[in-house]
Please model this.
Amino acid sequence: MKPVTAPSAGGTQCLRHTGDDWRVLSTGMSLNACVQALYAGTCVRPGEAQYGRWGDTTLRLVPRRVEQSNDNTRFRTLAEQDRNCQFTGMN
Model:
């Protein structure tokens, strides 16, 4: 699931995976801002996941948390999601 993108002049790209394609949400965004842009207000059900990328880091929304991975194999928790599908600890 590696995106094919042009080099970014503005900094780190934030991308959303949409089925068969990657869509650039922004360039030059912080990791926290990218997570908020991708997943704030969005909850997934058990067994579901949504994917995004921040630079070379894969982001995965699973029930109640966002995980990150540098190799698309080993994911670790980045942020917990509250009952309102928000990330109150991230600005």
Observations:
- Confidence is low (pLDDT under 50) at residues 1-9.
- The radius of gyration is 12 Å.
- The CA atoms of residues 19 and 51 lie 10 Å apart.
